[in-house]
What does this fold into?
Amino acid sequence: MSAIWLGFDTESDVTRWSAEPGLAIPPEVLGEALAAAERLVEILTRHRTRATFFLVGRLLEVAGTDYRALLVGHDVQCHTYSHHIIHAGHPGLYPGHPVYDLPPEAERSVRRGVELIEEWFGYRPEGLCAPGGSPTGLRGQPEVLRILWYNGIRFVKSDNLGLPEAPMLPSRIHPYTYAEEGYPDLWELPGVGWHCTLTLPRGPVGDWPPRSVVPGGPLVDHPPRTPADHIVWVKQELDYVRAQGYQFSPSWHPWSLYRFDPQMEVVDFLLQYAEEEGMPVKTYREVWTELTGEQDFTSG
Ligand SMILES: [Zn+2]
It folds into this structure.
């Protein structure tokens, strides 16, 4: 049965702000990130729903008190310390790019991200969302998997960039393990659905090639312009995944949803759709515990 895996890549607008330690985050950028998380939590509370927040460690260094107050009781997992890319294969970003970390920097970013969540939330996260995502997950990347494994990561969301002909679908829809790389107990929980950062305009819309929202769907010749447009877009995605029996596990970002619509109506819509259609809403940790039989200590 289709379900919604509800998770949010929780960062600030990384296109404007590099997470270098010592570099001040502009107050308006941090303010937007916090206001977005606040609005989101308010909607989740109203729907009595928990979500996963894949949190960038750097934000805890500068606003740990605020994030802890907001997110305690939710499923907080790791989005690295710096949000630099830690894996090969991200389109457009390559080793040598300023926001690209190779080992040992990648190891430090994962370890520090994990430590900060433990410091502020009292448990070590077992999940990690790979910044930037990947069209093939972390397959064939034993060095990255080793870093994750030895830092206690047991489930990862990285297979979440679709091919040009089906951009909302990962290379493999269903959870899988990295047994072939030597990590049979490290799970991939793939992302199905459009990244909000790829659909919502951040500024003036330049060239926007017509595309279909779902495989085989009609072409759309402009990005969502209003919250109502975005809801129509997401409804197409939801109807599609339900018909296919897939999960809906998009890469949504509080700051990006909030900048497009400070009311974040699309989140309200999503949760209402789930209620009306009887789609279970799960955190990523819940999905992982169902697969492995581990305890979910983050709930209750
Ligand atoms: Zn991210």
User: Anything to note?
Assistant: The longest strand covers residues 127-134. The chain is about 35% helix and 15% strand.
